[in-house]
């Protein structure tokens, strides 16, 4: 493979650079006991397989494509951050192509083949040592030692939501499921944390605010990795999420917003009028926010007679879109919106909002008693516990 400095990019190479944004492995949450054992069994086989973990750190890519694309150019690009590190190329012969070279795990690499003026087959993967099989078509696929391990890991994680996201389960049951899930994922990520594979997995899970292993994995990252912008952003995102917890037991923060009549209203106009006030932070463009509104409405109807009220606070800046969303929701509690992008930033900072839906539960004295981050189920559990007293 040849190193390039400030290369003059061809149309295909420009496409490659456009496609070189960071990607993460698709994560879906999974089952535990039996699934973990199945994963560990396969992992053990791979770990002790001499053919996979030999001392030779060379990758061998063997690719297949429909023979109708014979003589088409196939390109293998490696990257450092968003910059092209190197480009190698070959031609399709008898529906096959191949590459080989030193293992490169710092970033995902890209194999691509332009088969029409505006159409390209492309897939990202890590250039791990050993055999790598690539099939280029409309749904490209990779087969390699790591991908075998990763697929087993991913498949072992497929059913976890079904085991603890069942209505009627207790909060303790839910938490126990997540704790075991995070421990399972930690063991996998820890194994790869010193290369781009581990970093990619680390970044993929940075949004899990309750992951107890985030900082432990962060400390295992090489110092040079901690200077990467994506790592810095993930770290700051997690710190901002953690800051939400610091709001509990503190007085609510007042803020001026507007109602449907464009009248200015303050949060303090609603605090103290009920035993509990739920600040429901949402927006018309937030799918999860809209999806959970019927559940919030059910809880509102159930606990309204006990002194539970809701105040909707939208981060919308488009009033018409906000009004249409309110109409479609069909809710009965007061709704306010920010209406200005700079004010949205100010509100986000005050309440440490890094994502919505988000809920802030305030008692009659004005104290924040809970920060609701796990959507409506979290609120359900908090209300059940609160009204037991």
TrEMBL record:
Location(s), subcellular: Cell envelope
Entries under Gene3D superfamilies matching the protein: Glutaredoxin (3.40.30.10)
GO cellular component labels: cell envelope
Domain called Thioredoxin: residue spans: 246-389
Primary site of residence: other
Entry-linked Pfam families: DUF4369 (PF14289), Thioredoxin_8 (PF13905)
PROSITE patterns: THIOREDOXIN_2
InterPro entries assigned to the protein according to its UniProt record, in alphabetical order: DUF4369, Thioredoxin-like_fold, Thioredoxin-like_sf, Thioredoxin_domain, Thioredoxin_ResA/DsbE_sf
Key words of the record: Cytochrome c-type biogenesis, Disulfide bond, Redox-active center
Biological process terms in GO annotation: cytochrome complex assembly
Name assigned to this protein: Antioxidant, AhpC/TSA family
Native source organism of the sequence: Bacteroides fluxus YIT 12057
